[in-house]
Design brief:
This protein has about 280 residues and is an alpha/beta fold. The chain is built from 9 helices and 9 strands.
């Protein structure tokens, strides 16, 4: 028996890195997971890993910034698994520059993926959740506690030089989290955020400028200056960066029944470090 048996979860950006680990963790605890990635191959690999472990999952491929994506994502959960219980807004990437060199394209792209996309997904989910709650009330069935976990960052809680776009988006996501906690409390939905500190992923393990990721045909430079990474690790009370598995654990905590009375909060998963 898993703690999430019978639950249906959406996890955006779950083909790689932290998102993949979140999907694997939720599935291991019994949730049926809708996996999403920009590219089919990483999503396929996550599906295979879930199914090899005895879990259930389907994929919804595409960019979370596409105008029709949110509705497709939510509808996939309804069509394939009959409902929706957990939403994890995780998809995203960084595209850094100091403010005087940052283009409108950089600003808009990061705000779109980290803030507009979660907003659209939650907007698309509202009719499904409201209808399920209404039906439960009419039949006298118990109303389960549904969960939303938005993925933020310590850049959103404290700002970070070179990341005006990312910091603004992640701070905005915290405002969205608090607002949705107030709007959706009547549906017995908890809405929380996890703000990650330094987590080892493909976005942080490459040296600054030493790696790129492809985002819909754009080559985006990623990475962290090695001296900066070493200095940050010295400032982390636990003395090291976190792993994607540890990051997923923080999200899982807010999806469990034990967190049913926690809402509108931001949990910092950073080994004790705050900007």
């Amino acid at each position: 028996m898993g703690t999430l048996d019978g639950k249906v979860a959406l996890v955006s950006g779950s083909g790689r890195g932290i998102g993949r680990e979140i999907a694997l963790k939720l599935a291991a605890e019994g949730a049926k997971v809708v996996v999403n990635d920009l590219d089919a191959e990483p999503a396929k690999e996550t599906l295979a890993a879930i199914e090899a472990a005895g879990g259930q999952s389907v994929s919804c491929i595409g960019s979370v910034t596409d105008e029709d994506f949110a509705e497709r994502f939510v509808q996939t959960a309804v069509d394939e698994f009959g409902g929706l219980d957990i939403i994890v807004n995780n998809a995203g990437y960084t595209w850094d520059s100091v403010v005087q060199k940052m283009t409108d394209e950089q600003w808009d792209a990061i705000l779109d993926v980290h803030l507009k996309a979660p907003f659209r997904i939650l907007r698309a989910a509202q009719p499904v959740i409201a209808a399920a709650v209404k039906q439960a009330k009419e039949t006298g069935a118990p109303i389960p506690c549904r969960k939303v976990v938005n993925i933020s960052s310590i850049a959103g809680t404290g700002g970070n030089a070179g990341q005006a776009n990312y910091s603004a988006a992640k701070a905005g996501l915290l405002g969205l989290t608090k607002t949705m906690a107030k709007e959706w409390g009547r549906y017995n939905v908890t809405v929380n955020a996890v703000a990650f500190g330094m987590i080892k992923t493909r976005l942080t393990e490459a040296p600054a400028g030493g790696g790129t990721i492809d985002v819909q045909g754009k080559e985006i430079k990623v990475g962290v200056n090695p001296q900066l990474a070493a200095a940050m690790e010295q400032m982390i009370p636990l003395g090291r960066a976190g792993t994607p598995t540890e990051a997923a654990g923080a999200v899982y905590l807010l999806c469990t029944p034990e967190s049913d009375y926690i809402s509108g909060q931001t949990v910092v998963c950073g080994g004790g470090f705050n900007i």
